[in-house]
Write a structure and sequence with these properties.
The chain is an all-alpha fold. It has nine helices and two strands.
Length: 250
């Protein structure tokens, strides 16, 4: 057998996206522990970082040309932990107290139920070689971060975690959006040479990170609300405008 000196050098890069996916899952696991120990704010910070890992694992895999079916499935498993189980644990711990146990359990189950449906739909709708500039339905990371943004916003203003009734209405709305046919813009490429829309989204992302670092909970909820609202309005105005595949990565 002929030894290929390049084979060994290529092997390590295959682990990079999977390590990021594993870190996403690990942060989700830690977030659950923090919620159960009465530290949901810290859990929310971990979930935001997990969301960034979720963005970068797929992008790095595509950049290195090492996309795989295993990577897609592993990513979904990690997302199930961080962005489906964690929000359900959060709702159960903070927002269903006083409800009948069965009803409270079902409401808390909504993020897990609709989130896993969303992930399964995403996996079967994937078309190899075709990248689109949108996802059908709200992604599980954005839905989870939106729920935590409600918690952050209220905690920074009043010191509590918000009105449970409002939180449960938000949970129901996010569940519907995850399985809806509405198109949501994907995370932009890190390039200002990939079209006007990508450049606007990239500027918006940079502005969001800077604003979040400065104003923290005050700004996260308005930002995710603008993102969700803008995409809903755009889809209702032109429901088929994004149907043509593009080069923007998820």
């Amino acid at each position: 057998m002929k030894f290929d000196p390049n084979k060994k050098r290529r092997r390590p890069k295959h682990f990079i996206p999977n390590i990021l996916t594993l870190l996403n899952m690990f942060l989700g696991f830690l977030a659950m522990g923090l919620i159960l120990n009465g530290l949901p704010i810290r859990a929310g910070v971990f979930i935001i970082i997990a969301g960034l890992f979720d963005v970068f694992d797929g992008k790095i895999a595509r950049m290195l040309g090492i996309e795989s079916r295993f990577g897609v499935e592993f990513d979904s498993m990690a997302d199930t932990v961080s962005f489906c189980v964690v929000p359900s644990v959060l709702v159960y711990s903070l927002y269903v107290d006083g409800l009948p146990p069965l009803l409270g359990g079902f409401i808390a189950f909504v993020p897990l139920m609709f989130g896993t449906i969303r992930l399964a739909k995403f996996n079967i709708q994937q078309e190899p070689g075709k990248q689109k500039s949108y996802t059908v339905g709200l992604t599980t990371p954005i839905a989870t971060i939106t729920l935590f943004s409600y918690l952050f916003f209220n905690h920074q203003i009043d010191g509590d975690y918000g009105d449970p009734r409002t939180a449960l209405m938000l949970v129901a709305a996010l569940g519907f959006l995850m399985v809806s046919p509405i198109h949501f813009a994907k995370f932009p490429l890190f390039s200002f040479k990939s079209g006007r829309t990508n450049s606007i989204l990239l500027l918006g992302f940079i502005f969001s990170i800077i604003s979040l670092a400065i104003w923290q909970g005050y700004v996260l909820m308005p930002l995710v609300s603008i993102y969700i609202g803008w995409n809903i309005v755009q889809w209702f105005i032109k429901p088929h405008k994004n149907d043509v595949p593009s080069e923007i990565d998820p």
